[in-house]
Design brief:
The protein is mainly alpha-helical. The chain has one domain (2-237). The chain has 12 helices and no strands. Helix 2 packs antiparallel against helix 7, helix 4 (60-72) packs across helix 7 (106-128) and helix 7 (106-128) crosses helix 9 (163-190).
Length: 239
């Protein structure tokens, strides 16, 4: 993760052709929250499955909406609350089979819920810092995050630099860090937190579509019902 953040940061600073990090209190908090979110997420994955992690992480809108009211004085409408709730019910339906077959790790659940909270918080700080240059903001966020990850690397160091490792690192750095965070920052600037956060429910639908293209496997009917509920929740929140 330290390498991922550092590569993404260098890439974005290269885009703006200037290595001038933006340093202020809110930027430091944004960076810490981002790193904490990623850290809690990857450590949580040691104890819960990816499907369980998905469900628990998608409590993010339910946490972000009230926190946005406290930090930004941005009160969500009844439709935004309803959309977030409907979308989360869709996630539960989508992953219902997951919780039928195995017990949920309490430690893994706590770590993943902390990830969701920090994710919601750094989404709020994106909106709070919307007047800063977007690329420089994300580049600084990733640079500070890289330093934080490198600082704790000696606690649990393990790298297997196979060809697949380098491919995965490139994907995680360029698309799943630089591009992803820049797009999320853009969304947070455009819309209220209640609308932006609910858009994460697009992810299971996109994953299912990609899985179908790659493997031709169709998810069970219950999962399709869950996807429809998630999409309906997004529509309700944006009415």
């Amino acid at each position: 993760m330290g390498l991922r953040y550092l590569i993404a940061s260098i890439l974005l600073f290269a885009v703006v052709r200037s290595v001038k990090p933006i340093l202020n209190k809110d930027m430091v908090l944004l960076s810490i929250l981002t790193s904490a979110s990623t850290g809690f997420w990857i450590f949580g994955l040691k104890y819960v499955s990816t499907s369980e992690s998905c469900v628990l992480s998608y409590t993010m809108p339910l946490m972000a909406i009230p926190m946005a009211s406290l930090i930004l004085s941005e009160t969500a409408s009844h439709r935004q609350w309803a959309g977030a709730a409907i979308g989360f019910v869709g996630v539960l339906v989508y992953s219902f089979v997951v919780f039928e077959v195995q017990a949920l790790s309490l430690l893994g659940a706590v770590l993943t819920l902390l990830n969701a909270f920090c994710w919601g918080m750094y989404t709020i700080y994106y909106r709070k810092l919307k007047n800063q240059d977007a690329i420089s903001t994300v580049a600084t966020q990733l640079l500070i995050g890289a330093l934080l990850f490198f600082a704790i690397t000696p606690l649990s160091y393990s790298v297997d630099p196979t060809p697949n490792f380098w491919f995965d690192l490139t994907y995680l750095s360029v698309l799943a860090a630089a591009a992803s965070l820049l797009l999320w920052n853009a969304l947070a600037r455009l819309h209220e937190v209640g609308k932006t956060s609910t858009l994460i429910y697009c992810t299971p639908a996109a994953v299912t579509a990609v899985q179908y293209v790659e493997t031709s496997s169709v998810p069970p009917p219950l999962s399709l019902v869950g996807i429809c509920l998630m999409i309906f929740g997004i529509c309700v929140s944006r009415m």
